Amino acid sequence: MVLGFLKQSQSPIAIDFGYSSLKVLQVSPGDDPEVIAAANVEIPESVRRDQAQRNEHLGDTLPGLLRDGGFRGKTAICNIPSWQTFVQHMRIPKSEGAGRDEAIKAELMNSVACNPEHVVIRHVEVGAVHAGQDIQTEIICFAIGRELVMNQVDLLRKCRLEVGGLHAEPLAVLRAFWHLYRRENDDQITTMYVDIGSACTKVMIAHGRTLVFTRTMPIGGRQFDQAVSQHLHCDLPTARIQRMHEASTFHGQLHGTSQGIPSAQVGALMAQTMSSSMNAEPGRPGDAPLSAGAAPPTHEPSAQDRRAGRSPREFHDMSSDDTPPPAADAPESIETGNLIQSALHDVRESLCEELRMCRRYHAGVHTQRMLDRLVVVGGESRDSRLCATLAHAVGVQTYQGDPLIRARLTDDSRLTGLESIRGVPEWAVAYGLSRCPAE
């Protein structure tokens, strides 16, 4: 989905308006991208949930970041944040042009009682599906409040930027890995991408480059912190520090290091884990994304880089290590870690069940396609234990995505607010936006 129509004169500036941070990236075009500039700055907790204060803060912060960060040009490509985007799978009669647009608007009104005149609507066609004796077209509809879109445009213009495009985040995540699907039969690879951010989690299922399913769940880092805060009776900042420390300690034990996760080197977290209870029948084609049903059977993963006989560099294979050895921490530290895991159990299980339902929906609609791999991105994918839990829940070969692994740093590259561009799964949206053409 893209809004805006401007001709591209040079590499656009990609701006990821995340919930907890602002990421700005500019890379050269082509198959051998060079990082021109990259900048990351945290958005204060006090303004994150108030749209007016948030826009004011971004308007004050972004111009200086662009000026001091070494960014070139004035064309910007941005995301529409997922927590502000309504996503709906729809089935409409086969039609084209204006007839299809009217059918989408009518279905949207029926789904959410929304006036189509108050939203900007874009859609992605999934394909034909059988509905009884009829054949309908399944589409994915993205609807964004028109006022939100204009606020985004006004913010960019305030920063003296030209709008090269506004994209839905699920499509940006897929764009970050498009270059892996250029060979014959790559469209036969079925990948589930899970982007776990601060405010929500996005699930995308793609056949090669083609998006066939997406869903956004209000489960993310903030919800994890709230669960820990309530369990430990502390404030949110303290809860996050405790949670990150515990996750870092687990990662260090897992890989036999005395330290936790290095800030500049995440590396491979956990690898292939297979579920043992995957032999029930898949859901029916008519099942909704939240319908009950059993999991489809798994099969041997085929999503390999066929040129080298191994996985692409962008995908860090998660190890199937056993439970790490007991921590050398003090007893009170071990007890705190157990309390944190207890606090996170229900939230993690909710996320796992959402992923299982997404998988069932896909299996019901695309009965001849099974998942080949799960790729986890987003800032919360740095949590090894969480990734291992999701791997068990989905039951396919699991990787952590490293979208910037092929991007080159030169003497002229400028990094602001980050130590490295390697092992940064939270940059999938920003990198995907940078690979979108400005229009």
What does the model show?
The protein is of the alpha/beta class and 439 residues long. The protein has three domains: 2-82 and 146-183 and 407-434, Nucleotidyltransferase, domain 5 (2-Layer Sandwich), CATH 3.30.420.40; 85-144, Dna Ligase, domain 1 (2-Layer Sandwich); 186-401, 2-Layer Sandwich (Nucleotidyltransferase, domain 5), CATH 3.30.420.40. It is 31% helix and 24% strand. A seven-stranded mixed sheet has the order 1-9-5-2-3-4-16, with helices on both faces. It has a six-stranded mixed sheet with strand order 12-11-10-14-15-13, sandwiched between helices. Strands 6-8-7 form a three-stranded antiparallel sheet. Helix 8 (384-394) links the parallel strand 14 (373-377) and strand 15 (397-401). Helix 4 (169-175) crosses helix 9 (428-434) and helix 5 packs antiparallel against helix 7 (331-365). The longest helix is centred in the last third of the chain and has 35 residues, at 331-365. The chain is globular and about 55 Å long. The relative contact order is 0.18.
